[in-house]
Amino acid sequence: MQNPITVVKKDDNTIYLGSYSSNQIIELNTSTWQPNRTILSAGNTQIQGIDIGMVLGPDGNLYVPRYDSDSVLSVNPTTGNTNQFIRSGANDLDRPRSVLFTDNRVLVTAWGNQAIYSYSTNGQYQGMPVTSFPGAAGMIADGPDHILVTSDTLSTVRRYNLNDFSFETIVPCLLYTSPSPRD
What are the helix (H) ranges across the chain? Predict the structure, then answer.
């Protein structure tokens, strides 16, 4: 696999890897570190631009943000069958990066919109609870009431409250400095 960009853990023995450059998804055995099988082959026509925030949904399907086609694809990892979860450009979705299932909704970071979109668990648009967040990229749950969201533009991590989407910046902009040479 070329340029793996996302990884999802299925169980203690299996992970799924997705590649941005080849648009491929494979299942990998973590005991042998060998591929079990290919779910979507390289160069397939179902997906363009797999991004960092692929997730395993409560239905067992993979939900894959399609950065280059402004949509989210549902992929059955057993059969390889695909369905549009969020169709291309719906509600002006622009460059989705991450998908996250919460108790009653699905959140999608939209890098091009500088926002987080909200959908029902069947893919119906509910709005943008977060706007004006340049570089919204990675997103994970932080307990039952919060999420952590990275910004590759602002070089920060924000912690959002899922009840009202208020936030605190928990990792401020950090500039990397190389270590000092020792004498």
Answer: none
Q: CA 103 to CA 86: how far, in whole Å?
A: 19
Environment class of 83 (CB within 10 Å of its CB; exposed 0-12, middle 13-18, buried 19+): exposed
Antiparallel, parallel or unpaired: β 34-40 and 4-11: unpaired
9 vs 56: CA distance, rounded Å: 8
Q: What is the pTM of this model?
A: 0.90
Per-residue pLDDT of the chain (183 residues), as tens digits, is 888 999 999 999 999 999 999 999 999 999 999 999 999 999 888 888 889 999 999 999 999 999 999 999 999 999 999 999 999 989 999 999 999 999 889 999 999 999 999 999 999 999 999 999 999 999 999 999 999 999 999 999 999 999 999 999 998 766 555 555 554
Q: CA–CA separation, 32 vs 180, rounded Å?
A: 40
The answer to whether 79 touches 93, Cβ cutoff 8 Å, is no
Q: What is the Cα Rg of the chain in Å?
A: 17
Handedness of CA 82, 8, 130, 70 (dihedral sign): negative
